[in-house]
Write a structure and sequence with these properties.
Number of helices: 6
Distance between the termini: 36 Å
Structural class: mainly alpha
Organism: Setaria viridis (Green bristlegrass)
Protein name: Reverse transcriptase zinc-binding domain-containing protein
Radius of gyration: 14 Å
Helix content: 55-70%
Strand content: under 5%
Shape: globular
Length: 115
């Protein structure tokens, strides 16, 4: 059975996205191997968005953005039978992050300025 926790934190595809995001932004705490164990989506969310090294608002914005893109990918796979490679999804995430910056996501801008 698919759960939110599985989709966001345990799925191999999603973990690749998080690993690529960690590399892109030089945020080792976003690597799945660095995450504290969690049994549900709320524990996972709290764990990765509460770190002493980064702004909580920035990490939460980034996490929401990635969750949204992963959710859309999941729906495309289920309803349209269309799969996107992790590399292509990362390009979408980067493009969306740029759009969020233009829309005024100032906290996210701080995190993205590290790239």
């Amino acid at each position: 059975m698919e759960t939110g926790h599985h989709l966001l934190a345990e799925c191999r595809y999603t973990r690749r996205i998080w690993d690529q995001t960690a590399t892109w932004l030089a945020q080792p705490n976003l690597r799945p191997n660095a995450w504290r164990p969690s049994s549900n989506a709320l524990e996972w969310w709290t764990s990765i968005t509460t770190t002493p090294d980064s702004s909580r608002k920035a990490l939460r914005s980034l996490t929401l953005l990635i969750m949204w893109e992963v959710w859309k990918e999941r729906n495309a796979r289920i309803f349209n039978r269309h799969e996107t490679s992790p590399t292509t999804l990362m390009m979408k995430i980067k493009d969306e992050a740029s759009a969020w910056l233009l829309a005024g996501a100032k906290d996210l801008a701080i995190l993205l300025s590290r790239e």
